[in-house]
Amino acid sequence: MHDLLSIYRALELIETRLRDDVIASEMAMAAGYSLYHFIRTFDRVVHHTPYNYLMRRRLSEAAYELAHSHRRVIDIALDYRFGNHETFSRAFKRLFGVQPTQWRELGAIPHQGLMPPLSFAYLEHIHKPGFQKPKLAEFPSRWVAGLMTQMVGQPGEVEQLWRSLGRTLEMQPPAQDPASFFGVISYLEGLSGKGFYMAAVEMLSSDMDAPHLVYRSLPAGQYICMAHNGSVETLSLTLTYLYHTWLPKAGLQPACPLEILAFGEAPPWRGENSSEITILAPVK
């Protein structure tokens, strides 16, 4: 716990100095460590070097400004302490795969594309006993049926959808018993956190007679599988680790803006397995 608090103080310093010069010795001083001990401890706690984390945060903020303002690329680059256009463009392409001008032309921010500032809750979460690293697995195509809603950020909208599905299945049960339950999230590009959520049950085929439900096929392919042991409220912390630490280190990228939450055989609306969720995300 002491190391987490100390490193978090360094993270707070970094956030205040994204547009100013900052060196590792200042970060070490904020943490209360020697430079050598700080660098080793930061890497162990954050899973990034101080320099790598600083660059990712600066580039993420710069990328947000590129997508949401008409400021000149060179002005944004200089704001975030890149000495010239060439240095900024090279670092930007290394992280995001495109040049800054191409990013602006896209007019959208890829889902989970920008690294957020890491909170103390995040550090606690990834260092909890039992926190599991992701694994790669082949995911077969599956048919699911359920109810869908557009996520607009209203409290309880997902929970309400699951309860509605439970009532629907009780009143009009499908011809075949559901095998397992999935939350299927399809994100809209350029709208962070916005998209469609489908509360669904797995079916054995698409040949079903339940007009009150929406049907879709989940694509087969290579997926990241990661167990989330915790509440739904902390799911975003697991996803931050998945997208901004594990995937870059593994040399992988999301294949499409899709996340699947596998709840197993117990319906989520009954609260029987709310602390055991498997995150599935297609990768390339």
Per-chain topology:
Elements: H1 2-16, H2 24-31, H3 35-46, H4 50-68, H5 73-79, H6 85-96, H7 100-106, H8 120-126, E1 135-139, E2 142-151, H9 157-171, E3 181-187, E4 195-203, E5 214-218, E6 221-229, H10 235-250, E7 258-264, E8 276-282
Antiparallel strand pairs: 1-6, 2-4, 2-5, 3-4, 3-7, 6-8, 7-8
What is the number of domains? 2
CATH topology of the largest domain: Multidrug-efflux Transporter 1 Regulator Bmrr, Chain A
Annotated CATH homologous superfamily of the largest domain: Regulatory factor, effector binding domain
The CATH class of the largest domain turns out to be Alpha Beta
Tell me which CATH architecture of the largest domain applies here.
Answer: Alpha-Beta Barrel
Which term fits the overall shape?
globular
Q: Which strands sit side by side, in order, in the main sheet? A: 1-6-8-7-3-4-2-5
Residue share in helices? 40-55%
Q: What would your notes on this structure say?
A:
The chain is α+β, with helices and mostly antiparallel strands. It contains 10 helices and 8 strands. It has an 8-stranded antiparallel beta sheet with strand order 1-6-8-7-3-4-2-5, covered by helices on one side. A hairpin with a 7-residue loop joins strand 3 (181-187) and strand 4. It is globular and about 65 Å long. 30% of the residues are buried. The model has no long low-confidence stretch (mean pLDDT 89).
